[in-house]
Amino acid sequence: MHLPKLDNETIFLAFAVITGLAMLLQTLMLLAITVALRKTASSIQEETEKLRTAVLPVVDETRDLIASSQVILTSAQEFVASAQGVLTRVTPKVEEAVADLAVVTQGLRKQTAVIQSSTQEIIDRVHVQTDRVDSMFSTLLDTVDRAGGFVAEAVSTPVRQISGMLRSVKAIIESLGGPLIRR
Fold it and tell me: Taking Cα atoms as reference points, which of 98, 96, 108 lies closest to residue 71?
């Protein structure tokens, strides 16, 4: 059985092919990582926009509701003040007017309590969504940081390996190309 002789050109060609394949593999891995990061960023951007479009109308409606509640309360206060003036002037119908006023005031208090409860619930939901967005962005930044570390490691490891292989090839070439010592 006869083994083929390996000359310098064959060795160089083998190393060049191995190096080229390693670089191609590394390029494909980096491309896959880049595509995955772009998809993730796009998805996060879409989710943030959806959240923004869902939360902003609620906040605007809450502001309007609070403003209208204040107007109603102010109107109710003015009504109570004028009713008191009428009560002092109209003695025969005082009991009937007081009973009616108590019913109106109780209804306004119930409505105000309902409005305040609804407003607090909306504010609580906005806080929950804000915490969720904060968590999403924190997770995104952590993922980007880890991906950066992975990319740095993925680039530096093959470079060190190639450098070691080149030093080995150089040493082999120098040892093969040096003067032969005859005995």
Answer: 108
The string of pLDDT tens digits covering residues 136-176 is 889 988 998 888 888 888 888 888 888 999 999 999 998 98
Tell me which DSSP letter residue 102 carries: H
CA 182 to chain centre: 72
Counting Cα atoms < 13 Å in the Cβ hemisphere of 111 gives 14
Residue 22 CB contacts under 8 Å (≥ 6 apart), including other chains: 158, 161, 162
For 24, 27, 124, 160, the CA distances from 167, given in Å and listed in that order, are: 21, 23, 65, 11
CA-CA distance, 150 to 178, in Å (whole number)?
42
pTM exceeding the 0.90 threshold for the entire prediction: no
Which secondary structure element, helix H or strand E, spans residue 40, and what is its range?
helix 8-89
**Cα separation of 43 and 106, whole Å?**
50
Buried b (16+ CB within 10 A) or exposed e, 93-125: eeeeeeeebeeeeeebeeeeeebeeeeeebeee
Yes or no: say if 69 and 112 are a contact pair by the CB < 8 Å rule.
yes
Q: Closest by alpha carbon to 88, among 79, 98, 102?
A: 98
Is residue 33 a contact partner of residue 150, using CB atoms and an 8 Å limit? Answer: yes
Orientation of helix 8-89 relative to helix 94-177, angle to 10°: 170
Name residue 107's amino acid. Answer: G
